[in-house]
Amino acid sequence: MRSDVAVEGSRDGFPFMQRLWNGRVVLIGLNSARWRPPFIASGEVGLEQLDSLRRLLESDALKDVPYKVLMLHHPPLERYKPLDSHRFSLQDQYATDRCDAGSGNDRAAKCNVVAVLGELSTLARASLQRALREHPVDLVLHGHTHTPFVGPLLPEVDKQQPWVYECGSSTFRPSPRKPKGAIARYNVYELHQATADGPVTLRSATARVLDLATGQFAPQPLAVPPPPAAP
């Protein structure tokens, strides 16, 4: 996909931004893909993209846009077991979580472990979650794990925040390792705006999952964020 507007600092097409629904929704794409050796599938957004993302979310172009969707391949929150994280996760987030989890010598030790795993402690400055705390979006879509997921980006934070969705997999049949998520599926998101100048909300989210017996995609409702608090 390509931007329909110029994005300051965009490199190799990322971040990109596309306007949808007559400009009431914007889709912002980040590239988390990086070259890795065999059996390593971790990703990284990096400082350059995050700086560009911050400038974009602060810009006048998005000032009056009621709904913002962020899309990237790797999950922006921890979805893997600790022993698998350094091989599969978004390394920006993995490094930040561990370097933040302590102070003094304990913090230094955790950051050194991160560096040994090939995730430099400087990546702590490049946390995607931190960027989204400073400049919130409404919805985050990702892939990579091949396992369905629905939930808030920061479950411990008691305030309006983006929800994160992963559809699952397009694989035809379940695998022994992932029998629930590997069946072919896709998600449908329905946005709603009650008045011309009112907020845009996610009214419904539905997974459409292949039924192997019928060959049809059966709808399964998904949880959606709570409505915005009254001002």
Task: Walk me through this protein's architecture.
With 231 residues, the protein is α/β, with parallel strands linked by helices. It has a domain at 16-172: 2-Layer Sandwich (Transcription Regulator spoIIAA), CATH 3.30.750. It has helices spanning 47-58, 82-88, 91-100, 104-116, 128-134; strands at 16-20, 25-29, 67-71, 139-142, 149-152, 163-166, 185-193, 200-211, 216-222. A 6-stranded mixed β-sheet has the order 1-2-3-4-6-5, with no helix packed on it. A hairpin with a 4-residue loop joins strand 8 (200-211) and strand 9. It starts with 15 loop residues before the first strand and ends in a 9-residue tail after the last strand.
The N- and C-terminal alpha carbons lie at a distance of 36 Å
Helix tally equals 5
The CATH C-level class name of one domain: Alpha Beta
Residues in helix, %: 10-25%
Order of helices and strands: EEHEHHHHEEEEEE
Which structural class do the helices and strands define? alpha/beta
Topology:
Blueprint: E1 16-20, E2 25-29, H1 47-58, E3 67-71, H2 82-88, H3 91-100, H4 104-116, H5 128-134, E4 139-142, E5 149-152, E6 163-166, E7 185-193, E8 200-211, E9 216-222
Parallel strand pairs: 2-3, 3-4, 4-6
Antiparallel strand pairs: 1-2, 5-6, 7-8, 8-9
Helix pairs in contact: 3-4
